[in-house]
Design brief:
With about 425 residues, this protein is an alpha/beta fold. It has 13 helices and 16 strands. The structure holds guanine and zinc ion (ZN).
């Protein structure tokens, strides 16, 4: 690591740990030689000595966005409108994911995936891989090279999918253990393994139970889908008749706890919402995906009033964009339509610190404060977006006029826009 300190002079907008936002019109973000934030404060010439100062006065710095739910092997089928969910999985997703048995294809797409995330200003991902161990290793390695942060999960599935995607229990268990050993904590701790049963319909009870045992023994996060579509829920209960409701399937397996992240959570009953809260599980809210597949609308108000941790997910490729500001815009629409309006500040928080909290990464990412890693995005700030209101507009809904100019993770430049802007 270099010992040179870097200062970034720009406007700064960040969520605060205690709630609300901090805005500094002419700020200085100081990054130490190890890639940690040393200070964030108003620019004064006398504090800028002894460092290399990047003059970004026409830009806005925000924390790197956190995509709490995204599927890497769906990168190349983005925009395929073959929904609803179960039909879309069969028609579009499973045939594409089967292609990841090819190492060269997995590598090519992993590079595209990482570039798409970094270009959108996403610095942290909770990514599902395919059900291939080798493709999963390749994703880890490519994320490491690309400099990004996050979780990767081997997608566990053994039924209701093409034969080449089904991984028998013993093989799945071996592969998860091998990945935990070789990749968990790689890239200096930036990358972690998550136990990733695809959803209850892809899994037998035994596989779900094995996933829970692995997560507990290896102390890993769990990510899966819940209550995305009414037909999915119906078929889930037919397959797992011992459970009274969808969440009950995961509870019976021991999969619901403070280290669990559920994507979607659209069609949960009051009791299921209460149990998600009581067990301390988190939600990855994927509003673009939910609109595109016609799955329904997650009720953000239910999570909010119970204090459930919520992050935002692009859910590519059911989501149509890697850009978390797009996801955030769809979250605004969904919140309005469910009678629980959410403001720009709340949604900006979900896309940054909220996601980091849901993923247990808030000690290192999600906000621009001293002591955290320097994961940040440089946004172009047009003259009409001056002041805190303008900054919040471009950090949320007005993404088109405020393209990402640069993306940094742990102080390292991981993406830069080609043309001068
Ligand atoms: N449920 C199970 N698998 C998937 C997937 O790949 N995408 C979405 N949106 N839902 C799922
Ligand atoms: Zn998903």
């Amino acid at each position: 690591m270099s010992s040179v300190r870097h200062g970034y002079r720009a406007a700064v907008l960040t969520p605060r740990d205690a709630g609300g936002l901090t805005y500094i019109e002419d700020g200085l973000l100081v990054v130490d030689g190890a890639g940690k934030i040393e200070r964030v404060e108003a620019f004064r010439p006398e504090v800028a000595g002894g460092m290399f100062v990047h003059d970004l006065q026409r830009a806005l710095l925000v924390p790197g966005f956190v995509d709490a739910h995204v599927h890497y092997p769906q990168t190349r089928v983005i925009g395929s409108a073959s929904g609803p969910l179960l039909e879309w999985l069969q028609a579009t997703v499973f045939p594409e994911e089967a292609r990841f048995s090819s190492e060269s294809y997995a590598r090519e797409v992993a590079v595209d995936f990482c570039r798409a995330c970094a270009a959108a200003g996403t610095t942290t991902v909770a990514a599902y891989s395919s059900s291939h161990e080798r493709a999963t290793e390749i994703l880890f390695d490519t994320l490491e090279e690309a400099g990004l942060r996050g979780y990767v999960g081997l997608t566990l599935m053994e039924r209701a999918c093409p034969r080449e995607l089904a991984v028998p229990l013993a093989e799945a268990e071996r592969a998860v253990r091998a990945l935990a050993k070789s990749r968990h904590g790689s890239a200096g701790g930036r990358l972690r393994l998550a136990v990733t049963p695809r959803f209850a319909l892809s899994c037998t009870r035994e596989l779900l139970e094995a996933a829970a045992r692995l997560a507990s023994e290896l102390e890993l996060l769990v990510q899966t889908h819940v209550a995305e579509h009414p037909r999915e829920a119906e078929e889930t209960l037919a397959l797992h008749p011992y459970a009274a409701d969808y969440l009950g399937v995961y509870e019976a397996a021991g999969l619901v706890g403070p280290r669990t992240i559920f994507a979607h959570a659209i069609h949960l009953s009051e009791s299921e919402w209460d149990r998600v809260a009581a067990r301390g599980a988190a939600i990855a809210h994927c509003p673009d995906s939910n609109a595109f597949l016609g799955s329904g609308r997650m009720r953000l108000g239910e999570a909010r009033r119970r204090g459930i941790a919520v992050g935002l997910g692009s859910d590519v490729a059911a989501g149509r964009s890697f850009d978390m500001r797009r996801a955030l815009s769809h979250a605004y629409d969904a919140a309005l339509a469910t009678g629980a309006p959410a403001g720009a500040a709340e949604l900006f928080e979900l896309a940054t610190l909220g996601g980091a909290r849901a993923l247990h990464l808030a000690d290192v990412a999600g906000a621009l404060t001293a002591g955290r890693d320097a994961d940040f995005v440089v946004l172009h700030r047009p003259a009409h977006a001056a002041g805190e209101d303008g900054a919040l507009r471009i950090a949320t809904f007005a993404a088109d006029v405020a393209p990402v100019l640069r993306t940094y993770v742990r102080g390292r430049l991981v993406w830069q826009r080609d043309a001068a802007f």
